[in-house]
Amino acid sequence: MEKEIWVRADRPADREDRKEMLLSALESGICTAIIRPEDGDFKDLGRIDALVNDGGLLSGGYRIVELRTPEDQEAALDLAGKCPGVILDSSDWTVIPLENMIAKFHGTGTKVLACASDKDQAKLYMTTLEKGVDGIVVDVDDPNAIRSFTSDLASGEKVELTPIEVTDVRNIEMGDRVCIDTVSLMVPGEGMLIGSQGSCLVLVQSESEDNGYVASRPFRVNAGAVHAYAMGPGGRTRYLSEFKAGDTVAIVDRDGTVRYTSIGRCKVEKRPMIMIEATDGRKSYSTILQNAETVKVVTEDGAVSATKLSPGDRVLARLEEGGRHFGMKIDETISEL
Prior knowledge:
Blueprint: E1 4-8, H1 15-27, E2 32-35, E3 49-54, E4 57-58, E5 63-66, H2 70-77, E6 85-89, H3 95-105, E7 111-116, H4 119-127, E8 135-138, H5 145-154, E9 157-158, E10 162-182, E11 190-197, E12 200-205, E13 220-225, E14 229-231, E15 237-239, E16 248-253, E17 257-279, E18 284-290, E19 296-298, E20 303-305, E21 314-319, E22 323-325, E23 328-330
Parallel strand pairs: 1-2, 1-8, 2-3, 5-6, 6-7, 7-8
Antiparallel strand pairs: 3-4, 9-17, 10-13, 10-17, 10-21, 11-12, 11-14, 11-16, 12-21, 14-15, 16-17, 17-18, 19-20, 22-23
């Protein structure tokens, strides 16, 4: 699940310092900030969801909960299912109360966010009980610390990639291919997870390498046929045909590190296609890509043009059991052929 990142812009005593905190949040890509009632005009500084803190109750129904004693914890636990979310604030607490919170609030519809004053603290909160909190509220004294803080958190999510062996590559009929242009630059080894089955998504590299004929376009992933799945936030999948400008997609590198970006443009064009079949030794999988030199899949050692793949080559893919229902993983017996 993609974690929310907020910032507390209500802490500093000086108004200009609070303003600088919010501006730094905007420049770091954070779209939600907590502000004081008298700072309502800060909303005009940019497109940001500014939540006013009125004695611990935020506009929108969220509540800031201070954890100082066991009684504080009991009062916080009692909020499960009774408000949109709680923000846990404490300078002296262990992970145990947080574990209790995550377990209690799971499935109630009430989100749990935690204030964090450093990156190590934030990463701990985001992985407690494996699920972690729903989000982090950056709570620092120095506005300049926000950018590095958020860049580290954004690259903290990982997926497991497994080498699978190519068994066949063959030309098929012309098809409608989706080309996704993002608002971010990618590097070799980064791309999107694409596949004909939700149980196997192959890492298709961005067009971040020159090939001697066409200049690199590191913002682009020549993603595949319209029917294919692609991974988005929270591990959910969507059909490539559904993506549009402004949607969020997952960018993954060969180590499995995930970051998120927005789509700037999608192009659907008729192109010659190839079908790649592969196996993990137990099951067979497939994906369909454009028959073009510039379309590359990622391997353990680099990237290989899809047109030059041969049986025996190994490509990186995300494998999982079960099926998909409206893009969400479900545990069921399913065969996708």
